[in-house]
Amino acid sequence: MDLELTDVQQELASTVGRLLATKYDAAARDEVLASEAGYSESMWSQFAEIGLLGLPIDEDYDGAGMGFAEVAVVMEQFGRALTLEPYLATVVLGAGLITAVGTDEQKSELLPGVAAGETKLALAAYEPAGRYDLTRPGTTASVSESGVTLTGEKSGVLGLGAADRLIVSAAVDGGVGLFLVDPAAEGVTIDVRTQADGHKAGSVLFDSAPATRLGEGDASAAIAAVIDTANAALCAEAVGAMEASLKMTAEYLHTREQFGFPIGRNQVLQHRAADLYATLEYAKSMALYAKLAVIENNPDTRHRDVIAAKLVIDDACRHISQEAIQMHGGIGMTMEYPIGHYAKRLTVIARTFDEADALTAELAEMGGLIEARAADLQAG
Amino acid sequence: MDLELTDVQQELASTVGRLLATKYDAAARDEVLASEAGYSESMWSQFAEIGLLGLPIDEDYDGAGMGFAEVAVVMEQFGRALTLEPYLATVVLGAGLITAVGTDEQKSELLPGVAAGETKLALAAYEPAGRYDLTRPGTTASVSESGVTLTGEKSGVLGLGAADRLIVSAAVDGGVGLFLVDPAAEGVTIDVRTQADGHKAGSVLFDSAPATRLGEGDASAAIAAVIDTANAALCAEAVGAMEASLKMTAEYLHTREQFGFPIGRNQVLQHRAADLYATLEYAKSMALYAKLAVIENNPDTRHRDVIAAKLVIDDACRHISQEAIQMHGGIGMTMEYPIGHYAKRLTVIARTFDEADALTAELAEMGGLIEARAADLQAG
Amino acid sequence: MDHLLSPEELDFAHQMREFFRTEIPEDIRYRQAIGQELSKEDIVTSQRILNKHGYAVPNWPVEWGGQDWTPVQRHIWLEEMQLASVPTPLPFNTAMVGPVIATFGSQELKERFLPATANIDIWWSQGFSEPNAGSDLASVKTSAVRKGDKYIVNGQKTWTTLGQHGDWIFNLVRTDPDAKKQAGISFLLIDMKSPGVTVRPIELIDGGHEVNEVFFDNVEVPVENLVGEENKGWTYAKFLLGNERTGIARIGDSKVALARVKAYAAATKTSRGTLLDDPLFAARLTKVEAELTALEFTQLRILSTQVAGDDKPDPRSSVLKLRGSMIQQDISELMMDVLGPQGIDFVDSREVPTGFTTLPPGAVDAGPHYYNYRKVTIYGGSSEVQRSIISKALLGL
Amino acid sequence: MDHLLSPEELDFAHQMREFFRTEIPEDIRYRQAIGQELSKEDIVTSQRILNKHGYAVPNWPVEWGGQDWTPVQRHIWLEEMQLASVPTPLPFNTAMVGPVIATFGSQELKERFLPATANIDIWWSQGFSEPNAGSDLASVKTSAVRKGDKYIVNGQKTWTTLGQHGDWIFNLVRTDPDAKKQAGISFLLIDMKSPGVTVRPIELIDGGHEVNEVFFDNVEVPVENLVGEENKGWTYAKFLLGNERTGIARIGDSKVALARVKAYAAATKTSRGTLLDDPLFAARLTKVEAELTALEFTQLRILSTQVAGDDKPDPRSSVLKLRGSMIQQDISELMMDVLGPQGIDFVDSREVPTGFTTLPPGAVDAGPHYYNYRKVTIYGGSSEVQRSIISKALLGL
Hints:
The complex is a heterotetramer, with 2 copies of chain A (380 residues) and 2 copies of chain C (397 residues). By secondary structure, chain A is an alpha+beta fold. Chain A contains 11 helices and 9 strands. Helices cover 50% and strands 15% of the residues of chain A. In chain A, the strands form 2 sheets. In chain A, strands 1, 2, 3, 4, 5, 6 and 7 form a 7-stranded mixed sheet that branches.
């Protein structure tokens, strides 16, 4: 049994970690945050250069041909530095779906550009009325001889604004299809918003907008799978952000003095920090659990295991983000101090793709993780 | 606005408190606990002497003609001393139901005996298959010319063993009726058990057991009302037991030394004790809330308010009983030290008549305590 | 609560209810009710109406505009005000500097400041906290050195709420650098238009501008602006901090906020019905409702004791702060959960470009509110401070 | 977990699974599975079978019956044993005194005690805790005064688990009253049949007899019963307490217990279906399931690091104890909630007089178990001690 990172993964972690430590410190990040685009094109190019953007893309399409394990390594580092670039949108969701359902031609057209840092993608799948539901899009595709057009509204589109191409889910043939849309095309209106964590997202309106079908057949399973993968990626990112939050909080407790001694001498804060540490360990374990589930990709257990992981991690995000601010006191609520930025990202992660109550109910309905069994009862 | 006890109530509290302080200390209680009957006849007589048993009974039937406010005062004192006598069973449930639905004749026959300490009662309403449900008894009453007989099984009968007369709910006329049964009669089998807290309760089997109808008509509302009253009484008892638990825990923290100083110097224990104090305040407030609801007896809100109170108090029972043991350490788990006895009573109270999850769901379904309202939304 | 009140108290409650709902402009109450940030003008308008009718500063001496009310009446006044979504009078004026001047100030100071303070002709700011002081308020470093008939003030204050609107600021300053910590502090009133006063906004994670840093660079302050005696300022500060402990639970506000959560939840569709029907959400909401009731009755029990004449400090006031702030945070979190994916963005308005679906109610304030309310367990005596107070009373350690 | 194992590890797991489920008598495993208290005979029978096959003391040196297993193999051994409801070998023998004698004892002591200890021919009791010591184990007061070739032992031990079955007891005794706390302590083996040894039961709130007080009244103990050197006992005690930290999470046991809760809940009717369908109960259960998985993977991550060769003490072991004990308590509470009104009574058997409804599964053990499990956050290093360990490692304070 070996659950540690491979040498290659460790090297990857160090490479990304070093890059971010030098180029993406709090001051650099503040600049990115304040920028119109909300992310750094220059960082994006550097991500491309060191191969992060093509990491999970097949070698045939200029990618590195690696797997989710490596993506998770990158996401954890991104979480640590709180990067703002649309990696999840472009590489995990976008390239993930193209890889899953795209035709060879579509892959050839789009994936090399992603790997090279030239093409950004966004998945437009959620809708204003649907909350977190992906299975019943109100957006419809209309197929005629002159081509396909889409009509409807999407919301919560991560990476909107930066995206060169949208992947849009729509009702078609009694099921759900995926479509490629140029956000600059006629009939497409975008409304980019800024999330609490600084990430750009937003809504898109399609009014008979020209579209191309991505792959063929019903895409529901592919969408569900890519959201599982993205959730596992968020788990990794959350772990990075929580580890950084705890480290920062521990340092603060160690150095901040009040009434003449470091506030970390307060036993109450020590014990609460210990609880945060335990919570972080749980989160790390469940990020690993989600990662293994995505890699194994067992259709009977993947979704179940990922939501179990996200559930624990949502709780951890809440616990650590709230306590980190409380233990910092007022300074933790200011934009000039980093801990609040972490708290905001963690709060958003716990509300991205799902909500904890619904995950809990869903996991329970799926039968949970442990089989009911009592020696003095018939199975039932 | 005056929420304090009246002078009479304060006097009552002192009288009961003094009696119990002198006659019902931990050693005396241990003896009662170890006895076959599980309660003290001598204490029962003294309760009768100072008028506690007839407290809420009408003066026409030799009672004091007081109300639930005074019963709550007594219950709180009983909670503080952790008395084992079947007061709830006899006075609150038994006499309460007879007062509510009994005929004048039945009241004359039974209530003076209760007030005098000569008659004990028990309500047999729960059934093994019904969990906490009271509305659909499987026990049936069969009415013929020779009289009424009951057939069925009851469980969770508080005060069983001591009771001279059982009040039994049974299906009759398409509704629920109440019946008086002599536990010594033919066709009645009783199985007395000891609860975790030392109180006696148990099951009764009726096999065409002779019975007399208590009052007439459907008794569902009366049963629901008396359970609300009993729940409010348990709230008061729980407050007494929790206050004693917290006092004992605070004293322990103050006097117990480890590593050379009182363990209460540990800031962690100080803050956790403070949380217990806050929890106790909530419990006191909700015991008051339940008491006012029972006294006001508004049919639209009484049940709702009582379960809201019990819900908060169940949580408080859990918080305080668990933390009181944890803060005592191993000694708190021994029978020779009182705190564990309090913990057991509190654990049982939180599971008497209801369970917290079900209360929460019920309160939610009743619409909760606060009306939904938003200035920017139509009422809906 | 009505059924607990005496007939006189009930009359009073009806009178207040009627007053707040008819005299305070509906648009102000509407903005307050739906969680919009109020402008300075809103706050001033509202308070001046209150003051005109004698309802701005009931806790002050009657001579200066106060009311000879019982604790229960004061509670009713505040509760009804919050339930009517009337903005409460500016606490820096009415609960802080006003009572201090009224109690410890000279007749001259009273005449000069109290009417203007009650009527919010002066908007007061608070200059207590300093950088890195945290809960250790007595570690004042801002100095006031007497030079003739002036003090020369140098130093920095922080966390000055709404300081951007401030006309005057009341400060703790160190007038005797050699005295021990609490000694050597004075209570000084400073005109914020004085040369050398600079206000710098602190940007908070909720995206708003609520608090400020205030810098004093050789600011000249006339000695007559000293309240009470030199070096006795800590006494006045403690008096100030001990005021109005029961109002701190903000129960009326929490009721309004929770009613709003509930109404939105009932209007929020999920895949299985409305969010209010969702068993897990409903359970969390219901527990908070029950706890809010417990909090309210804790407050009423304290009031009831006060009526009975016991006026010594009560650890139960700390329970009100400790639990009241938790409940405020819980409600802010429930509101976030109602909004779900639509509570993630920071937007200025529910309006969207043509054709897009309008954002749901709460979309503007749910997120900022949640982040902003992280403060309620930190300020005004953090939860940690409250627990220490309670345990001291409880354990005597 | 199987899919995480290497082929060799998987073979090993299958071998263990098979062994435990075929060689250990089914009636013992059944009693263990449904929460019945096991008799001394059950425990002895089971351990002797294990020992016969070399599976009682894998953590010991191979020369004394141990196995040269990897940490992962040891984990598999324990996990499969718990999943098969096989009672784990008596920890006083196998995890405590055995390793101490094997590491610090003389050759003579080893020969005399180790085989009998592994085979539970001697039932060991633990004589560490003393009245009022609590977590302060080094405050040993029981004295052993050397007189010729004997020690004269006087004093009292407490919390001696299953001491009523004990043949021998290993003790911390004070041999140098003048030395500082931790110095002056020795590790002494005492035959419990010696004159002057009295065992008195401590009655616990769960109604059972699990722990004891042990009194020593001028007990004569041959000096050859000293382990290692005089006054070095604290070193051996620390070694003992540091052993087997990963097993402390009891994950296999918790899985079995949770599966049982779930099966009972599915069989429990409520007014709306089964308890397992109740959204609030199911949510609580599901959260505990997810947390138990998190705990398991935390344990596996530690094991994985151990494989990689890092053997220094790890604050994550304290996480295992802290959270593992919480989960055990949570499960015991869920079980209480499954039983509902029928978990309130203390009964010896599910059997009832003729005609009455048989009590549901769990009715006998749910309550006592809940009360008994209050101990798991107290003993073996309380939760408070674990938090202090973690924060020390984390904050270095």
